[in-house]
Write a structure and sequence with these properties.
- The protein has helices at residues 12-16, 31-36, 53-58, 76-81, 100-105, 120-135, 138-147, 152-156, 174-183, 201-207, 215-221, 241-244, 264-273, 294-297, 317-335, 356-361; strands at residues 2-6, 40-44, 63-66, 87-90, 111-114, 166-170, 190-194, 209-211, 224-227, 251-255, 276-281, 306-308, 346-349, 352-353.
- By secondary structure, the protein is α/β, with parallel strands linked by helices.
- It has 2 domains: 2-116 and 315-353, Rossmann fold, CATH 3.40.50.720; 119-308, 3-Layer(aba) Sandwich (Rossmann fold).
- Strands 2-1-3-4-5-13-14 form a 7-stranded mixed sheet. The protein has a 7-stranded parallel sheet with strand order 8-7-6-9-10-11-12, with helices on both faces.
- Helix 6 crosses helix 9.
- The protein is globular and about 65 Å long.
- Mean pLDDT is 95; it is low at 356-363.
- The structure holds 2-acetamido-2-deoxy-beta-D-glucopyranose.
- Residues 101, 104-105, 352-353, 359 line the site of 2-acetamido-2-deoxy-beta-D-glucopyranose.
- It catalyses: formate + NAD(+) = CO2 + NADH.
- Keywords: Cytoplasm, NAD, Oxidoreductase.
- Residues 35-338 form the D-isomer specific 2-hydroxyacid dehydrogenase catalytic domain.
Length: 363
């Protein structure tokens, strides 16, 4: 079988750290294993633009492995070109870079699997960190020190405590709930969540979270909002100018879910005007983000307006070990013919959505 693997390139960093598995140099650690069974592996980071490797190799690949960090976009056109494709593996979590509905509607027998749960803790930690970075005004304080300056007041005038704030998550699944669990120790005033389904009662009680059915009502109450829902037709562009105007003036917004859940220009404008005191996260509507993306330099009179990073939250070295192993497990299950996948990893099985729950999640 021919396996195509799309990853970011790490250059010299790959040699620095062999545990950096999720790069083209280290190839999730699967080359020898695949080749020893007679399979062919093609690895590349070249996924966009003219004459890219993804378009070239997808034509005769049986298996394509992508990640959310350097997403190989699996569009209708590419699906139509992929005459032999049977399995799409996402080394990580989140398959929105794949046109799932198109596969489901077509008669192609392509299965789509992700390594569910592999990086939920990594992302939840990044969310809590970003909240602290924003609320405590860390970035400008640190930049001041690096510059050689010292002006406590300049930093202090925009520095707050997370304690006693109302904190809300939009989406309360595997990541959102872990964020709430971690926030309990900060003694928030209230923890709120918005989701299409309620948490089990014990789970709600464990973190002391309250469900709010109406999104605008939730946003009107929260000092800090974190987005932890998947990207689909119902959430694309959800945080636009109109919805952001329903947030408390001067709230902080953290998004490590998917960039396209927010309208980039509207967020930048809200940061500029101070409607948002700050925005932080690691996901972008296009990845890699262009040099002139509005989120790179957006700023406001609150110095802590911007806590953006590249899409790194789910690709800590600890997470890489887990999603590399999970990818290998999925491949092994497929290549052996057993297809005894972990139920929670399966998005599409032989071309169709398998669980009702997933379909509902898309609403
Ligand atoms: C998936 O395909 C089936 C028909 O095969 C259809 O009934 C269903 O609505 C599709 N689901 C989505 C989410 O497109």
């Amino acid at each position: 079988m021919k396996v195509l693997l799309i990853l970011y390139s790490a250059g010299k960093h790959a040699a620095d750290e062999p545990k950096l598995l999720g790069c083209t140099e280290n190839e999730l650690g699967i080359r020898k294993w695949l080749e020893s069974q007679g399979h062919t592996l093609v690895t590349t980071s070249h996924k966009d633009g003219p004459n890219n490797d993804l378009d070239k190799h997808i034509v005769d690949s049986d298996i394509v492995i992508t990640t959310p960090f350097h997403p190989g976009y699996i569009t209708k056109e590419r699906i139509d070109k992929a005459k032999k494709l049977k399995l799409l593996v996402v080394a990580g979590v989140g398959s929105d870079h794949i046109d799932l509905d198109y596969i489901n509607k077509s008669d192609k027998k392509i299965s789509v699997l992700e390594v569910t749960g592999s990086n939920v803790v990594s992302v939840a930690e990044h969310v809590v960190m970003t909240m602290l970075v924003l609320v405590r005004n860390f970035v400008p304080a640190h930049e001041m020190i690096m510059r050689g300056d010292w002006d406590v007041a300049e930093v202090a005038k925009d520095t707050y405590d997370l304690e006693n704030k109302v904190i809300a998550t939009v989406g309360c699944g595997r990541i959102g709930y872990r964020v709430l669990e971690r926030l309990v120790s900060f003694n928030p005033k209230e923890l709120l969540y918005y989701d299409y389904q309620a948490l089990p009662k014990e789970a709600e009680e464990k973190v002391g979270a309250k469900r709010v059915i109406d999104l605008e009502e939730l946003l009107g109450k929260a000092d800090v909002v974190t987005i932890n829902c998947p990207l689909h037709d119902g959430t694309k562009g959800l945080f636009n100018k109109q919805l952001i105007s329903k947030m408390k003036k001067g709230a902080w917004l953290v998004n490590t879910a998917r960039g396209a859940i927010c309208v980039a220009e509207d967020v930048a404008e809200a940061v500029q005007s101070g409607q948002l005191r700050g925005y932080g996260g690691d996901v972008w509507n296009v990845q890699p983000a262009p040099k002139d993306h509005p989120w790179r330099k957006m700023a406001n009179k609150y110095h802590a307006g911007n806590a953006m990073t590249p899409h790194v939250s789910g690709t800590s070295l600890d997470a890489q070990i887990r999603y590399a192993q999970g990818t290998k497990d999925i491949l092994e299950s497929f290549l052996s013919g057993k297809k005894d996948y972990k139920q929670k990893d399966v998005i599409l099985l032989d071309g169709h959505y398998i669980t009702k729950a997933y379909g509902e999640h898309k609403k």
